[in-house]
Structure formats: structure tokens, C-alpha cells
Fold Oxysterol-binding protein.
Amino acid sequence: MEEASSVPGSSLDLSIPGICEGYLMKRRKYPLKGWHKRYFLLERGILKYSKTQQDIQKGKLHGSLDISMAVMSVNKKSKRIDLDAGDNLYHLKAKSSDIFYIWLTKLSAHRLFRKNEAMSVHRGVLHALSLSHSTLPVVGTITQQSLSTEYKLLQKPPCYPSSTSLDSPEIISTAPPASYPGATNKVSAWLQQTHNIDATSNDLARSQAELTELVQLIQRLHWLEGSVPITNTDLEMRISMQNLFLEKPKKKSGKFTSSHLSTNNSNMAASVQSIPDYVYSQLSNPQVTSPEAKKLHQDICMLSQRVYGSLKSIHEVLTLERERLRQAWTSPDLRQDTSQQLATLCTTLTERTPSMARHSRRAPSVAESTAEYFDASEVIMCETSSEAEASDESGLSDITTTSNSEPEEGHSAATLNYKESLKTATDKPILAPKDTGRRTTLPSPCADNSHIGIMTILYNNIGKDLSRVSMPVALNEPLSLLQRLSEELEYSELLDIANNTDDPYQRMVYVAAFSISGYAWASWRNRYKPFNPVLGETYENHREDRGFYYISEQVSHHPPISACHAESENFTFWQDQRWKYKFWGKSVEIISSGLVNVTLPKFGDHYEWNKAVTCIHNVLSQQRWLEHYGEVVIRNTKSDECTCKITFVKSRYWSSESSKNEIQGVVLDRAGEVVHRFGGFWHEGIFCDTMATPTCIWKPNVQPDDHLQYYGFSRYARELNEMNADLEIILPPTDTRFRPDQRLLEEGKVAEADKKKDQVEEKQRERRKEMAKRGEEHIPRFFRKVLDEAGREVWLYNGTYWKIRQDPGFSKSKNLALW
């Protein structure tokens, strides 16, 4: 759906839309399970929400969003509205189609109001800059007020232009350069003779305010005199301008239908959008014979006379000044100096801008301010199929879920305690050997992708699964998703410790720390994405220094599923991950629906847990940042003695940088009582203060000094794609290390990698077509599909990879030709 826009050069509609308030369903921020009911208030382009109407009236807000700065995507079928402002991402759902229609109308009207307001400021400044030097005193005043108004717009909800005078205590110096004394004398004499300029400025400002008031009075009278709306346009106008309360009264009411319309318009009524009676009653007005309507007539007449008098006076003064300006312009002394005068004006404005910026938190230029509004001017209608709709809700439980999405009592104090404890902790977990004998750097630094038109790519795929969208190779890092999965084993020593811990509750704490450690890479890896594996692609990672064998395979292409399995004398680790990438306008959510599994042989424990949601904010800019949020629940399927709940806290709009990436967790006994508490930050470490001795459970390894030059890779990540002569002989040709486009990118050959990536993807498509013609399906080589105890479809390792690798070897076996 295209948003209404103003015609260039036309007058802007600055009528303030009416307030809209009522309950909507909002998807939970965390633990991101289902939807909950929240009260929303839309006023002057700012959308606020809290639990109840009383909370909003008391100022107890849960969130606030400027809708003009957000991309709005809409799904009519599911009655959903998604607002993505970069830092904030709201998923909203209406209870009915008519309430959805009203909210959509209101949101569109408020967005257009804020857009027109910003454009009004922009036009005022451009107009001031275009005036000649003859009116520079007035220009300086207008420009200063326009800039001041713009900064106020950025600091608080914008106000409708008031009757503030155009006069200002500060006037930009506009004297011509001293090199033109004739021009200076003539301008000075002219200004001294101009006695009515200030009065005219006051008249203009007053007329502007009175005209605004007159328009509102006429519009209100129009509603009083008007009958029932007979077109959708008329209905939308009334909805936009009236204050609406969208909560249904206790008394039952029906829908607004053709019975509300006059009999003369019955033929047109069928096309009018249906709305509830209790909303329609707020749009209805008394008849023109009411005392209010009569008073409006009188007010309009009096105000019209005042406006007429002001405009007549202004016209007389401007006519006189126009003639004097014409005479002055013909003077050669002034004409030759015009260019220099305009340059002086621009320089003066530039010098004044920093001083004004000191009075605001952030004072961008006019161009920047306008760009911020127009960057998010689109409203996108997503008419997805029923299959896509169902996938949108995957992983979300019913609305009646009892988990709370707000921070627990004492949340802030606990966070500060954990942060301080991590800083002063001296007892750190055992780290893996530093000297692994593997490479410590990459062949080439990361490629610059700032020139990639990612906006065009993503906006054409809003609401779609981005795993199906082909991206330029410059957006990739030289690792695949199969290798990314193996990064979760970077801190496998935590599982070694867990397998040697007798206390089941402490054992659970170390398993929880391991589950959190798998997210640490994300703190430095938000500029690039991993390669999507092709069907049948494999990756092995045998780590003698860490004591485990890892194998993974891409077992399905649509939907994309990556399965992996790792074995050690202390643990067995496996998972199959189904990733979905959702783009919401300014943010990308990465949702995984698979479960992670770990067994500890010493105790016979089998732990399983879900994954948190990963979200990349401001994905269209170079100031991207990444966070994880949601609730992770760890269960031991062999015993109900204890469970663990971990909350990845979603940053809120008032959060500081130091409080982002928070996590807090508890280990519960069979009765649901807390045995251990732990917390910290997924990029800094985990601290448990309920053990006999408060302990730092985990801290991430220190990043290499040059990590920003090499995709943000840790020491462990740099080793994953390393190839040597010994590996080249024993690895199967389907291993990711042989993938040519990924290898070329690692070597810094971006253009060649892009071409090779297209060839690899085309070859995969051709292979699928040939198999479809033969009626065949791809059968994974090292994993098999089964149903687990809960009836879920999972992929398990079939135990053949390492046997074939040893005898007869992959060079003597039949392998897929993937590249």
C-alpha cells in the first residue's frame, strides 16, 4: 500500500490527526512466547503503550515509538501491523478487521502529519536560502526560527505551527562585504526607510495562525452540518481527525452498516467500510441547528474579517516593497554583488548551526532531518499465503501463556551486581590451549560492502524468508552455516567440567553456561552473513586439542535444515537447525526452531533446549547492532530433578549501552524452588553467586587485536576454514573447505567469488530439476530422519562418516559433485 504524499509545490496539510487509544495484541518482547494484551495511545505521531489505560495516564510506559521513523508493514489477512524503527520492533495484531482498519487509518494519518510537518520546515529553510539579499534581515529571522523549530521536533513530539511571531531577538548579520561601499550605503539607506517590515512580519505570523484556526473551525462546522459518511474517503477523513476510544462498552453493539445511512445514499452505502456502532457514535455530530453550530458560524465570520484585514495590510506593504525591490535590482552596484551576498548568508548559517546544536541532544542538518522522515515513508502491504502466515507464528505459543515479559523484581540491581562481580572475578574457568598449531590470521582482510544496495534487496523481500533470497557475495563472511554451528563448541570445556561435577544443580549451571557461550561470537559479527550451504554440503571439525569429533551436513534445502553431531569422551552434542530470516523494514530476525541436545555419559543425563531469537537492528545502515532475546528452557529428559530457565533480556528504548546483552537464569528443583541464580552478559561472561563460593562460570576468550579487519573472527573462527595438504587428502569433496566461492572470498577475490557463487547456485538448481524429472529425492548421506519421543521430526547422525573416512576413505567412495 502506497502512503499518501504531497504534490511538490502544493500546500501541506498540517491538520493534527485525532488521538486513538485502545487495546491491541502485542507479540512478547521476551520470552517471545505468544501475544499479550497491551493498551496503546497514538498522539501526534507518537505510539505509546503500557499494560492498562491507567498506567499510560500515570506515565508508566512500557515503550514509545515515533511512527514516522518506522517502516510499517501490514498483513490484512492476519490483521497484523509490524512497526520497525530500527531500535524498536513492534508486532501488533487487532482483534477484528474493523479495529484493524481504524488503527491502520490512524497510523497512516499520523505518519503523513509528521512527514508534512518535517517538509514544512524543510521548505521554509530552502525558501529562506533562495531569497535575495534585499530581504536578508527577514530571511535570517525566518531561517533561525525554522532551524529552532526543527530541533524542537527532534526533541519532543512536534507542535502545530503556532502564532509565534517571526521576529527574533537575534538577527543574522547581513552586511555586504566592505569591498562594495556603494552597495553597502544603498542597502543601509533602504533599510532605514523600511518602517513596516517588522509589522508585516507580525501580520504574516498572525495571519498564518488565524488561517489555521479558521480551517479547523470550517472543518468542524463541515462535520456538524455533514450527514453520515457515504464514501470510504469521507470515513477515513473523519477517523483520522476525531479522537477515538476503541474499547467496546459493556452494552452490546453491532456493526456500522447501511442502516446508519440516509435512504438517499443507500446505493452507495454498500461500499463503505464497516465499523462498530460505538466507534461510529464518536464520529457522529449534532445537527447544524445546535447552539454549538451557531456559535461556530459567528466565530468563523469574526475570524474571517480579521484575516481579511491583516492580508489587505500585508498586500499593500508587499506591493510597495516589490516596486522598491525592482528598482534596487536594476542597480549595477547591487547586481554584481548578489553572488557574494548569498555566499555570506550560507556561511553565516553554517556557523550558527553548531551553536544551536549545543542546546539539543542531537542537532542534524535540515537535509539529515528530512531524510530521517522520508527514509521510512513506505507502508508495505504483505499479502502472504496461508502457508507463510502459519510460518510467521511458528514457535509462538498461545496467547494464554503465563510467562511474563517484563523484568522481574530486583532485575536492575541483580544486573549491576553481576556486572561488578565479572569485573573483579579472579576465579575463571579453564581455557582451551592457546597454541593449537593452527593458523592465526586469514589470507586477506574483509571486503568492504558499504556500496551494496542492500536496501533494494531487502525492501523487495519484506516479510519473506531471506534464506531463499540470493545475496551478493560481498555481504558474506568466508564461513558457512555448517561452520557457524561448530562455533558453538568453542567453549566445549564447560561440558567437560559438567561431566565431572557430581552435584546435579551445579552441573545444570555449567550446561547453561555452555548454551549461552554459543552466542558470544555475535558481539563482533553483525556486518556479514555466513554462506548458505548447498544441499549435500558437509563439514568436519576434528579437534584433538579439545577432544571432540564434529560432523555436519545440509540435509534439506527447502526448508533449509542443517544437522550436526559431535562426540567426546565427556559429552555427545547434536542438533538440527531450521533457520528463518525475517526482514521487518529496518531489522532482521533470525529464528531457529530446532532443539540442541547434549548427553553426559558419566551420569546418563540428556539435556535439550531451544534457542533464543537473534535480531540485527538498523540493518540498512553501517551502524548495525545485534541482540538476542527470548527465554531458553533447559530440561533433563532423563530426570525431572532440576530444570533451568534463562532469559535473554531484550533491550528497551531507555536502555543504556552498558545494560545491553543481559542474561539472567535460575536453576529450579522439582518443586519449582530456586536452587541457583546466575547472570551477566552473553558477550562478557556468566557469574553464579549462589554456590558455596561465588564463581565466575565463564568468560569469552579475548578477541585478537585485528578482529575488525577479519570479519570480527575469533581465534577459533579463523581456524575453521583452514586447509592443508593432509586434510585435502582425507576430506570428502563435499566439505565446505572445498567450496570455491567461499575460498575465493577468503582470499579477497570478491568479483571472482561472486561469479563462482552464481555458478554453484545454478548447478544446485539444475541438480534439483534433474532429480525431479526422475522422480527422485535427495537422501542425506550421514544423517537420517526420525521421530523423537515427543513425536517431533529430527535428524540424527547415522554413525557412518568416520568409518568411511578411515576405510576405504572418501577418495575411493562415490561422492556428490556440488561445485
Remarks:
- The chain has 23 helices and 27 strands.
- The CA atoms of residues 423 and 747 lie 38 Å apart.
- The radius of gyration is 33 Å.
